Structure formats: structure tokens, C-alpha cells
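Limitations
The C-alpha cells in this dataset are predictions for the assembled complex, not deposited experimental models. Users should treat interface geometry with appropriate caution, especially where small molecules or nucleic acid strands are included. An illustrative entry is reproduced here so readers can see what is and is not provided.
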Amino acid sequence: MSELSVDHLLGIKYLNEADVQLIFETADHFKEVINRPIKKVPSLRDITIANLFFENSTRTKLSFELAEKRLSADVINFSAAQSSVKKGETLIDTVNNILSMKVDMVVMRHPNPGAGVFLSKHIKASIVNAGDGAHEHPTQALLDSYSIREKLGDVAGKNVVIVGDILHSRVALSNIFALKLQGANVKVCGPMTLIPKYIDSLGVEVETNLRKALEWCDVANMLRVQNERMDISYFPSTREYTQQFGVNKTLLDSLDKEIVIMHPGPINRGVEITSDVADSKQAIILNQVENGVAIRMAVIYLLASKIKN
Amino acid sequence: MSQKVLLSSKEIHIILHRLACQLIENHLDFKNTVLIGIQPRGKYLADRLCRVLREEYHVKDIQLGYLDITFYRDDFRRGDKPLEANKTQIDFLVEDKKVVFIDDVLYTGRSIRAALTAIQSFGRPAEIELLALIDRRFSRHLPIQPDYRGRQVDAINEEKVKVMWKENEGEDVIYLVSN
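Predicted assembly:
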């Protein structure tokens, strides 16, 4: 097995195609492991990982923690709400204090784009970006591509549309990088106010008509409208957004082919997708969650194998 | 680099049949026994033995699985090269079964130590036996010995045992390679 070309997972844009394939092949093995009666391997018993969450998270934090524990790593958790960050401590000071406790790897979510890159230049530990502002969320993009590969056999050549709030979404950006890297065709669909200006430079087409986008695609990745990141009003009302960009069963059944529906969660049922779509057999939302653990185990295992004794 | 033949194709053929007979002697109809090839190289020996048991000795219901031990090894982050994982395929429960580990070369015993830990993820076997085609005497790091052995050899640490199979390398032959 070759090894990753990087020492940190800061974003998909720092990976090459061989890295992505290596992560997927390793995740295949871990997916088998997490379906055993005993779902744990002892590989990382001498590794300590700190999960630093400076921003709220349930799914990602649980998924990372489970992945780390399935690999037998020692895990310490930190969330900004109960920490000295509130007392004015800087990011580097916080992290260096934690690293003095002999931590080998840091999994970090931070509201500021580039926080992971900044940290990687100042500290020695291996860093995994678990989401930095509206920048990247690499493990989400990897698990999304892995789920497409699992469902459709391959990512290359597939048509994928990302629907919703592209502007505020780190999931969208990481997904675009990952899908393009693997040779998929990508379109984005949403209100023009929520499509970033630089989108053309990513090699992605914009489609403002949801029906046309769905007719074109093999996979639709539905994103949540991130109200918490919106300082102004980007569309007139949620009801109007749902009418134009929400997927319901009637719309889905009227297409002449069966497309795959994905969602990174958390779902706003009745806004971007209706409940009957979220619970339909076309939706692979819960497979994504399961694959998330396998992908994160693979990423952590591969990065840990580069930490020298 | 020089290499000498440890076992020829004919000798391997005879040994495989002897090992098959010894397995039958202890496990009869294999009702409560499962065979586990240790990945990556034990798989080929396990496949071959299974074929001999089925085709030559008409043993019917043999359960065969492959166990990868990569994530259980004790040298993670200690070598120069990253460890390469292989496929684990065990489509049955090992709870209360007699398990026979099958590997081509028994050297330090560390792989088998890892396999003993790994198999516990699939249940608690009634007992575990070990079958090795080549047993490198005097090189063990752990108190592990085979229950069935093809040939015992004395090889120094610098020497390497190379097992080749018809299915992959074109012929059945085992070499002792020295630098």
C-alpha cells in the first residue's frame, strides 16, 4: 500500500486522485470491520487524538469519536462553549496547551475558514479538518463520493448536482473538489443569491431550474439552507425556496429515471426535501452516515501511520 | 543473491495430501470445523488444501474464510513501509467452532499472535489449531508452535522463504533465498 501524499487532511484541494483511492480502499476494509460482531481493532492503541470543536456539531463529532474509538485511540474532547477560549485564549495557545499533554492528532472544527491550515503551520501534530467556516469539510466530501461509488459502482463519468445553499456550504466546495478530482460532472442548483461568484472557476455549471437539473443528474446532493450563516435575506421566504428548490415525491416520480438522493444532514424536513423523499429507497442518507465512520477510520489510520515513533 | 529449492512441485503435492489426511484424521466430516487462511499468503495454501479435501477426499461441507490481520499487528508505525491491508471474508460464525489457521510460513509467530486476537472479533472459538506449510525452526519470538507442519527448516534470519503457487507464479515451488 502506498501512503498519503499529505501529513494533514486540511481540504480535498490538497489531495490527489491516488490519495482518494487509497482512502476508499482502506475504508472498504474498515467498513467490513464495523459490521463484525466486535467492531474494534487495536491499531491506534498508542495514539491520542484531541477533538477540538469550536463550533457546534453532533453528527460529525460523534462520527469522528466513534471512528477513533473503533481504532482503539485514546480520545479527548473539547468544545469551545465550556473552554478558556471564552476567557480570551488564542487558538495556538489553546492547542499548544492540549498538545503538551502528548496528543498526536487534532481533529478540529472551527468557524473561521483556513483555521486548520493556519494551525498546521504552527504545531507539530497531525491535523484533520472537520469543517472550517464556509471553506472545506473534506471527510464529508470523501464519504459522499464513497457512498456514490458504493451505490453506482464508480464516481467517474457520473452526473452530480448539488442543490441549495452553495454560497455558505463547505460541504459543497469540498464535494466539488472531490467529484471533479474523480472525473464526475458537476452542476450546482439554487437561487442565484446563494451561488458564489467564483463558481465558474471551479469548472462547475449553474442550473437554476431544479427539474432540469434533476433530469440531467444521476445523483442529487441536497444541502441545508444555513440560516445561521446568513446575515441578510437571500430569498423572500422559506416557502418560496421550497417551491422552487425543494424536492418532493411527486417531482421525483415524474422523472423518467431513478436518481440517488443524498443529504449531508441535518435535514430540514419539508424545506429542501420532504419526509417521503428522505425516507424513500432512493435516499442513501443513512448509508452516508454509516460510511462516514469507515471513511474517518481510514483517514485517521492513514495519517497516524505517518506519525513516527 | 542465491536461492535453493526447499520443496519441489512433487514434494508439495505429497505434503498437501498428508496435511489433508491429518486434518481429516482430527476433524472427520468438518461439521464443527472452519478453516481460516491468514491473508495475504495463507489464502493460497488454504484454497489449495480445501480443493484437495473436496476433490480428492470428498469432504463436502468445508467452511473456508480469510482473515486479514493488518489492523492487529504489533508493528504499526514501526517499519519503513506502511502496512497493506487485505480482504477479510468470514461469512460464518466461529462461536464454539474448531478453527484451523492456515499460513504458508511460520516465522516469528507474530502474525499468528495477531490472528489469535483478530479472530475473537468473530466470536469465541471452541479451540484453535495452526497449520503451516513451512515451519522456520529457531526463529520464534513468541511461544507459538504449529499443530500441523509441512516441512521444518533451519534458516537464518537473513534468509527468506519464498513460496510460489501454480495459480500465481506458474509453478508450485518453495525456495530458500539468501543474499
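Some entries come with short summary sentences. For this one: Strands of chain B lie at 2-7, 33-38, 63-67, 98-106, 127-137, 148-154, 160-164, 173-178.
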